[in-house]
Design brief:
Elements: H1 16-26, E1 29-32, E2 35-39, E3 45-48, H2 53-58, H3 60-63
Antiparallel strand pairs: 1-2, 2-3
Length: about 70
């Protein structure tokens, strides 16, 4: 689980789609070959295998929830 505090500009009050858009625009979430990597401010990396940023964007409200 990620906290909104782990990323610049995210809020637990935003929708999943809003926070996902912020992750993409800040470069914290990027497409890396067949995977998506999400890097927090501490440098911890979560790798989501065999998905694309487009797939996650389409389902962001049901996939992402930041507390």
């Amino acid at each position: 689980m990620f906290s909104a505090r782990d990323f610049n500009g995210l809020s637990k009050y935003n929708s999943g789609a809003q926070n996902w858009a912020d992750l993409l625009s800040s470069g914290a979430a990027v497409q890396s070959g067949n995977d998506v990597t999400i890097t927090d401010r501490a440098g911890d990396v979560l790798t989501l295998k065999d998905v694309t940023t487009n797939m996650l964007s389409a389902a962001a409200n049901s996939v992402f929830r930041f507390l």
